[in-house]
Design goal:
mainly beta; Immunoglobulin-like; four-stranded antiparallel sheet; three-stranded antiparallel sheet; about 45% strand; binds calcium ion
């Protein structure tokens, strides 16, 4: 990403702001009386497949599983993992050479499940509670 800037920071959020499959970075610079946001757009050459999953509705704590031939990856929607920062309700899954996936499943905090079968890769999908 060419991260060579130096500033006092305690907050960072990674998100694919332009849905191009590359995670970008937003970093808050802490000044004595102000905060400056630095938006670092990822311009690294795309080297693999990916899929994005955006959850709608009450989704904090939801678990999202992407299944592919030979395995599965599960991630959780969390409110934040950086000081005074909140992550979006969007998850990014790097797939490498996998150009097909079997399914995307969201397990909602209330116990419901939403599943998308054979979704396309290299794009963002939205899931809502059923
Ligand atoms: Ca991006």
């Amino acid at each position: 990403m060419g991260l060579s800037q130096r500033f006092d920071s305690r907050s960072a959020v990674s998100v694919d702001m332009d849905s191009d499959g590359r995670l970008d970075l937003i970093v808050a610079e802490q000044l004595p009386a102000d905060i400056t946001l630095h938006v670092l757009r990822n311009a690294v050459k795309q080297t693999g497949h990916w899929v994005g999953v955006r959850l709608r509705g009450r989704c904090m704590g939801s678990q999202v599983t992407v299944r592919y031939d030979g395995g599965a990856v599960t991630r959780q929607i969390i409110s934040g993992d950086s000081f005074r920062a909140q992550q979006p309700a969007t998850l990014h899954f790097g797939l490498g050479n996998f150009s097909k996936i079997k399914s995307i499943q969201a397990r909602w905090p209330g116990g419901g499940i939403t599943r998308l079968e054979n979704p396309s890769v290299d794009q963002l999908h939205e899931l809502r509670p059923e």
